[in-house]
């Protein structure tokens, strides 16, 4: 070999194409498995049998009379729900379930479409309406004998409308003694309308009914507190109960609380709230509120809308509104008068859902 063809140092051989790099030998300590500690782990406590519940926690252990008494003033849905608690309750509440069904059927007979058709026929001289009323009253009486407080209230109401007030008071007293809020309120009203009135007895029943949320009892309690009837006069307390009754949907209380805010009687004077409550009472059909809103509208220059309000107040028996209505009638054109009276014909009171 000649010196020209010899290279130094000798070239390294080229790697073959697509060759992989050699893997390094793994370290003996790299993938060493971690040995678990042999320390003792706390074991969960063994399951033990739970002690039986005390006798007082068993619903079926309650006396049937106590279950019946606790739910006698409840609505039908509450009685049905309680009947599913256990077999003992289901058996104890069977009379109340029957009474609730009978009471509901009596209400359908009294207020249903058949009763409406019978009332229309009675205006033409028929006696079907009276027969339906007596049928409904019989159902209410049967449900009352089974212990339904709501049926006692409805039976008392029908007896009161027919002039049998002593019988009505007995039904109201039965419902009131069972804790029915409407029964307590109606019993208080019957004491107020007795001859002579028994205002102290009325107050005694108005308080628990009003505390239970009955808007009519709250209004009557406020009225007694304002006038000092059966209780010491207290305008501040009267305004408090008027406000609660108004918030519960009682239209008369809405008008009275508007006066309280307007004149600052029992509450801080607030013309904005006074106007709001007066307008709401008028929208619900209160005749004095309609009259006063009509006067305010006339003073502000809106005679057409004022005539509508005064016409509505006159139709509801507000005698003071008739003279003012006639004065505005003479000052408006025939077209505006026709428009105002047409609005009065189409007007409907605002629908509320008062608390019972």
Order of helices and strands: HHHHHHHHHHHHHHHHHH
Number of helical segments with 4 or more residues: 18
| Mass-distribution shape | globular
Helix content: 55-70%
What is the typical, i.e. mean, pLDDT? Answer: 82
Strand content: under 5%
Radius of gyration: 40 Å
Q: Distance between termini?
A: 125 Å
Low-confidence stretches: none
Q: How many strands appear in the DSSP assignment?
A: 0
Q: Tell me about the biggest sheet?
A: none
Describe the overall structure:
InterPro entries: F-box-like_dom_sf, F-box_motif, Sel1-like, TPR-like_helical_dom_sf. Residues 28-42 have a biased composition (Basic residues). This is F-box protein. It holds the Pfam family Sel1. The protein is mainly alpha-helical. It has 18 helices and no strands. It starts with 63 loop residues before the first helix and ends in a 10-residue tail after the last helix. The mean pLDDT is 82.
